[in-house]
Every structure is written in structure tokens, then in C-alpha cells.
Design goal:
Blueprint lengths: L1 H11 L10 E6 L9 E3 L3 E9 L4 E11 L4 E8 L7 E5 L7 E9 L13 E9 L8 E13 L5 E4 L5 E6 L1 E4 L12 H10 L24 E4 L6 H4 L9 H4 L1 H4 L32 E8 L6 E7 L6 E7 L8 E8 L4 E8 L9 E9 L10 E8 L5 E3 L1 E2 L1 E2 L5 E2 L3 E5 L3 E6 L5 E7 L4 E7 L5 E5 L6 E9 L2 E9 L1
Parallel strand pairs: 2-11, 23-31
Antiparallel strand pairs: 1-3, 3-8, 4-7, 4-9, 5-8, 6-7, 9-10, 9-11, 12-13, 14-19, 14-22, 15-18, 15-20, 16-19, 17-18, 20-21, 24-25, 25-26, 26-29, 27-28, 27-30, 30-31
């Protein structure tokens, strides 16, 4: 305290003259400018106290005040431009009144006629936000009696201007898995909200997400630490700390469920629902089936779709016929330059897909007739009606006029397909056209080792042969001249 008084007395020895626009401010050191307006429970944050428009400064003194000091705790400091020998700070915070007060004095130790430091950092402070902080409270930082010594003639004391700095507190909130827009009900608007944030908390945007401990898809209120993007906290439906395609599958899982308690006042940006009008495609467009294989019922599925052509124009993605109901959720985001798309599809009426088959269709405008793209799924995932995620199998592409696989051999003449199975158990053959229609289906009895498919009634064009052999499913494209 004596050292602080000594510094204040030294400041008082100089004539007080107002120079123009000298100011003092708080600069966050732990985050970039996009996140500098908030602080997060359980995390430490740092600030530099700096001067602006203050050339030739040799000293400064001020009192820093802040509100909600019971949850925003002072945790340490370090000297700035004038070094530790010339800087003193006194913490006068009163937790009974939750008023934070820190007095600071700092001198360079140079004579009054010295050059001084332009716009110095006076001191650095660290604070920590307690875990019991209430979400959306604010801690306001302000300066009182802020002065600086500016090198003018023999040194001049100037009064520093300042603005209050409010920091919003992000803390723990209640989330309901699937209610991504936090409006109290799970519906298709939640899928739109999730779509806004997929892939946004990555190395480019750098906003932080936090895992729920524990995280669950079960319909109940769960505690989550608010993310850097507060709205994205609700979009993390599975609680893994990231917004991905898997979160979209929670919408069919909990569709129609209503929150049973009062919602917190977290305003979310309204979502404009997409136009439900069916898209109109050119007359020559083709539907390329996207297959999955599984022997396990599932309520929804997600995957990244990739394809092997750079020539065809990708017009869109439409749902397949796997789900028995008509009330479906479909999310797709096509990256044509990367030859890939994100896809999530699920039943909103609880009607599960009981087996593998056509999950969706890739709609194309063909530019190379007779050479359609073959879509493949990367990390396809399904979710059961109980909320359990499990891997789906992507159907393998079989290339060439004659194929010899470990499970079967396929031979094609102009009007006949002959398939010989090494393991005929649970085997079948399905012929599909480019409109996605199942034209021919033949199951292979366990006592049979081959199947012949007469395709003489089919018109000229491109077709797909879907072959199931044991637990594996394959697809081959063939052309009828």
C-alpha cells in the first residue's frame, strides 16, 4: 500500500494538463476479436490494460472495477511495459458486495524528460469464471481515476478517458436432444438449424464446442456448457462436442416430442423453412441409386456420398424407398467441385427401414451417355429406434463386363445375365433402371447355385444389377444395346 501511495504522490507532483484523446482500454489476450465480448464458465481469461494515443508515456495509475466478482475471480497478474519493479497492484475486491476493485500504479523509473514508451501495456490481469456462474449474466469492467504521465516538457499528468467493457457470461444450460432451435418441440425446423452449423466448429472458424458429460440422445433435459456459438450448443444433439450429420439423425429419433419444463430465454435466429415444392428436373435427367446394406432395422441414416465422374451435372438428391412411411426428413449439401455431398435421411413417423436397399438417389444431368457415376458412401451410419448409432455397409461397386468376386461370378450376354454364387444362402438379384425403379427381382434358393435373369424385355439403356450374397451387397452397371 505504501508503494502505491508513493506512486500516486509522484504523479501528483506534475502539473495536470489535459492532452487530447489519451485513453485506457481493456484488450483480451486469450481469444480473437470475434469472441472478445464473452467469457466462459470454468475457463480462465486474460486482459491487457493498454493506453491509446499516449506517446512518450513514463507512468500510469488507475483503479479497475468489475461487477459479479463472486463468479468472476481475479487469479493473477504480470507487469507490462514498465516492468515488475515499477508496478504495484492492490486487490481490494469485496466478495460480500460482489464488487471487484484492483488499484494499479506503474512507473518506468526514468527521469521526467526521458523519451518514454508509446501506448504502453500497463499491466496484464488473469481472471477465472466460476462454474456456478449464471448463464447470460454480465460482468462489466470500468476504470476510475485513470491517469498517465506523458513526456511533454518536464512531464505532464493527463486524465485518461475510457469506456465500460461488458463481458457476457457463457455458463451451463439445459438442452433437450433434438430441439436444435430451442423452441420446445422437435420438428423439421430443427434439421434446418443443425444444417446451419455442420462443419462450422473446425480449424477454420475456430469456435469452441464442449462435450456434454455425460452425453446422451435420450429425451431428457441435459446439462451443457454453452459453446462459443451459443446457438450451436442446442444443435449438438448427440452431445459429442461437434455438429455433424449424426445430429440430424436425432430429429427423427425424437420427432414430435415436446419439452416438459419451462424453456430458458435463449433467443435463436428464426429459420426460414425450405420450399416443399418438388423440384423440376430436365427431361433427360437420371436417378442413380445410392445403396446401403444391413440386416438391422434403422430409423435414420447419414453418410458422405462421393462419386467418380467430373462430367455429369449433379442436380440434387432424393430419398429412396427404404423407409415405409411417407413423412421423411432429407438433408443434403452438395459440393460438386469435390464430387461429394453430405446426406442425412430418416423417418419422422417412426417407420423404420427393415433392411438394406436404395437409401437415396443422386439426380444427374448426364453429359456422357452410357457412363453414369457410381456413388459410394463414406462412413455410412444408422441409428436404431432406441438411439444407438451403428455402421451401415456401403454397397461395393463391381466393374467390368465380366466380374469374378469371392462370392459370385457374373456373365452377361445381350439378353441374359448369368450369376453363379459360391454361397447361395440369403442371395438375390435385383435389376434397377436409371429412374430408380425395381424392374426384376429374383431370390436364390439355398439349394441353387446360380441364377439366370432374362433381360430381353428391357429397353435399350443403362441398368444396375444389385447382387446380395450372404452379408455382402454389390452393384454393377450394365448397358443394353
Amino acid at each position: 500500500m505504501k508503494r502505491l501511495l508513493y506512486i500516486v504522490l509522484l504523479l501528483a507532483m506534475f502539473t495536470s494538463v489535459n492532452l487530447c484523446a489519451q485513453s485506457i482500454k481493456i484488450v483480451r489476450t486469450d481469444v480473437d476479436s470475434t469472441r472478445a465480448h464473452f467469457i466462459t464458465a470454468t475457463f480462465r481469461f486474460g486482459v491487457d490494460i493498454t493506453l491509446e494515443d499516449s506517446p512518450g508515456c513514463t507512468g500510469a495509475a488507475f483503479e479497475l472495477r468489475y461487477t459479479n466478482a463472486s463468479v468472476v475471480r481475479f487469479s493473477g497478474w504480470s507487469a507490462g511495459s514498465f516492468g515488475s519493479r515499477g508496478t504495484i497492484q492492490v486487490d481490494q475486491t469485496d466478495l460480500t458486495t460482489v464488487a471487484g476493485r484492483i488499484s494499479v500504479g506503474s512507473l518506468s523509473g526514468d527521469p521526467a524528460y526521458a523519451r518514454g514508451t508509446d501506448n504502453p501495456v500497463v499491466v496484464h490481469f488473469d481472471f477465472v469464471v466460476m462454474p456456478d456462474a449464471i448463464h447470460n449474466q454480465t460482468s462489466v469492467f470500468s476504470f476510475v481515476n485513470a491517469q498517465a504521465i506523458i513526456n511533454k516538457d518536464s512531464g505532464t499528468i493527463v486524465q485518461l478517458t475510457s469506456n465500460s467493457t461488458p463481458l457476457a457470461i457463457r455458463s451451463f444450460i439445459k438442452v433437450w436432444p433434438g430441439d436444435a432451435d430451442n423452441n420446445g418441440i422437435v420438428d423439421t425446423r430443427d434439421a434446418s438449424q443443425i444444417g446451419r452449423f455442420i462443419g462450422n466448429n473446425d480449424s477454420i472458424t475456430m469456435f469452441r464446442g464442449f462435450k456434454r458429460q455425460p452425453g446422451s440422445t435420450f429425451w431428457s433435459p441435459q446439462t451443457a456448457l454453452a459453446w462459443d456459438s451459443a446457438q450451436a450448443t442446442f444443435a449438438d444433439c448427440d452431445g459429442n462436442g461437434d455438429v455433424t450429420l449424426a445430429d440430424l439423425m436425432i430429429v427423427p429419433l425424437n420427432h414430435g416430442k415436446v419439452v416438459s419444463e419451462t424453456k430458458g430465454a435463449i433467443p435463436l435466429t428464426p429459420i426460414r423453412l425450405p420450399d416443399n415444392t418438388a423440384p423440376v428436373y430436365p427431361p433427360n435427367s437420371e436417378k442413380i441409386p445410392i445403396f446401403v446394406s444391413t440386416d438391422r432395422p434403422f430409423l435414420a441414416a447419414s453418410a458422405e456420398v462421393t462419386w467418380n465422374t467430373t462430367d455429369d451435372e449433379i442436380l440434387g438428391i432424393e430419398p429412396g424407398e427404404l423407409f415405409c412411411g411417407k413423412d421423411l426428413m432429407l438433408y443434403s449439401n452438395i459440393f460438386e467441385q469435390k464430387h461429394s455431398a453430405l446426406l442425412a435421411i430418416g423417418a419422422l413417423d417412426g417407420c423404420q427401414a427393415e433392411h438394406g436397399g436404395i437409401l437415396a438417389y443422386l439426380i444427374i444431368n448426364p453429359r456422357r451417355p452410357g457412363v453414369p457415376p457410381y456413388p459410394m458412401l463414406q462412413t455410412p451410419t444408422g441409428i436404431t429406434a432406441s438411439g444407438l448409432f451403428f455402421p451401415l455397409q456401403s454397397v461395393s461397386a463391381v466393374k467390368g463386363e465380366f466380374s469374378n468376386d469371392n462370392d459370385f461370378i457374373i456373365r452377361k450376354s445381350d439378353k441374359l445375365l448369368s450369376i453363379t454364387f459360391n454361397n447361395p444362402q440369403n442371395s438375390s438379384v435385383t435389376i434397377i433402371n436409371v429412374l430408380g425403379q425395381n424392374l426384376i427381382h429374383k431370390s436364390v434358393m439355398q439349394s441353387e447355385s446360380s441364377a439366370e435373369i432374362d433381360v430381353s424385355a428391357l429397353a435399350q439403356g443403362i441398368y444396375f444389377v444389385l447382387i446380395t450374397s450372404g452379408q455382402n451387397t454389390y452393384c454393377q452397371t450394365f448397358v443394353l444395346p
